[in-house]
Batch of 2 targets.
Target 1
Amino acid sequence: MINSICRLIERHFLLLAIALSAAAYIEPTLFTWLKPHIALCLGIIMFGMGLTLEVKDFASAIRNYKAVGLGVALQYAVMPILAVTLSSLLGLPQEAVIGMVVVGACPGGTASNVIAHLAKANVALSVTMTLISTCLSPILTPAIIYLVLNQQIEIPFLPMVESVFWIVVFPLVDGLIFRKLFRKKIDPIIHIFPSLSILVIALLIACIIGLNHDMLATFPVLVFVAVVLHNLGGLAAGYWGGRITGLSHKDSLTLAIEVGMQNSGLGVALATKYFGAASALPGALFSLWHNISGVYLANRNRKVSDK
């Protein structure tokens, strides 16, 4: 029975995400209670990832400096350029342009690690790129924003690193250690964790939609189109950048997820603090859309992998 339920969840997790999202739009309070627990939910998923990985996976990712370097370079080059180009082509208002640039200058988000896990991509490589891009963000994100917008901002280095440590590194390492100590007991139930991850990420997407209900009700079409194209452009640049440089499909898929999925939460916070609430709109829309596109991409790749 449990195995059947797990298979059902894995086959239909895009439908599950859409159904919960629709419910969140109709009745936001069903899911907004999750807001204080978002970091904990991501930590639970990262712990589950740790249970499915080995230390050798990270050793391999670190040795693969070509993929790591390429992913980080694309992150901080392609996404800001795409933000400026799309804003210009679509004639976005100044506040939206600022928001697009801020999101484009952000590092990869922790949600990318979750999607990499669900898509059967290279999770260790995804986590490595997230850590490096996040550690570089206190320098590169303000530099890019200043270069494009001529506006100085500050990102505290230690709080950024501390946040990633507690949400990503700590639960992941705990999972690695736990599996090493209790491998025989864990291996028979390890197949449950992907289904648990799917349920949690679907709930988190619904929570985000519930929290942004009022903004979504106005549905700023032009800004939404820009955000969608921004995300899809990042996914395409990551994947084909990897393939052109000789990376495998699995590693290229990982780059696509890492480049296309930004730390939009940071983007919203920076835009609100330094530019005003109107400039936070692209970041809020991005946080919704990149999870939906990520779930679709993961679902599609899982189906291909299972054949």
Target 2
Amino acid sequence: MKQITILSTVIILGLMVPFTGGAQTAENQQQPADSNKVSEKQALQQWSDSIALDRYNQNKTNMTILAAWAGVNIIQGAISATNATGSGPHFFKMNAYWNVVNLGIASLGLFQLRKELNKQYSLTQNHLAQQKLEKILLLNTGLDLAYITTGLLLKENGNRTSNLQNTGFGNSLLLQGAFLLVFDLVQYGNHRRNGKLLETQLSKLQIQAGPNGIGLSLPL
């Protein structure tokens, strides 16, 4: 909307200039430059919007995958826990319990994404949102490694003490932690590519003084 207002102002001011040779020459020199600036800003905003949309689509796909994984584990865990032997019942029970939480996280994530669909971001806001998401994913990978480590310790203790519950729970944590680690690393890799694109674009911006104060502009 600001770009359209700027362009309209330029055209109106041009029409108000006395129709003389000198004035016409000045207008012909100024208007293409202003039009180019508006066009450049519009293109930059459209590009930024495409990055935000890609982030939305990736997050929606990832939350859907997590919900599907959770659903399969809950159903299989509830069924298999009744007929498994040894440490199996504990393994399947923990899978089901664990994925009740995953299903809640996926459902909440999909609900929050509905608010993001029509949200408008400036380039800097888009970059901050991207950075926040990448930091969350890195934190998640650290937690995933903690789950795997805990699973190894539980399994080792269960095997050493013949504790079937610890063995089953340990195997479950190993499986769930490994899945989440791969899941979060793939997400981080995909989002990091967009983050690098935003960082590259922001590095091209320059601080300039304008009629309304200090602002950022993209050199043509």
